[in-house]
Design a protein that fits this description.
- This protein has one domain (2-124).
- It is 76% helix and 0% strand.
- The protein is built from five helices and no strands.
- α1 crosses α2 and α2 (26-51) runs parallel beside α5.
Amino acid sequence: MLLCNYLFVKGYQLGIKTRNYDDCPVLGGVIIVGMWITYILGGTLLLISHFFHISPSQINRYIYSIILLGGLGIYYSYKGRGHKLVKRYEQKRHPFYHLSPYIVVPVALLSSLGFLALAGFIYSH
């Protein structure tokens, strides 16, 4: 959960810097965390289905997306949890917490996408 919260804060900061989410800045963080979780879960499901010879279930991707993003949105919006999280991370003094979101978000998404690609490669062979 620590990594999800950190990615949420960086996605929130990225949304504020790019001015894409002025009306709802929580959405910027939710989208980043949702993509990261989807890539990790997808890769894990592919590896499980390959190694244990279980056919992957045909989950309707639209329902899955709505449930995932809706659940994350509610989680971070509930009682201003997202805003409190951002304030807490901004008060920390460690330089790791003050990295630019332009560095953190692409690295996290590309590494999880690489995991998904590796899992897909293993699944296909």
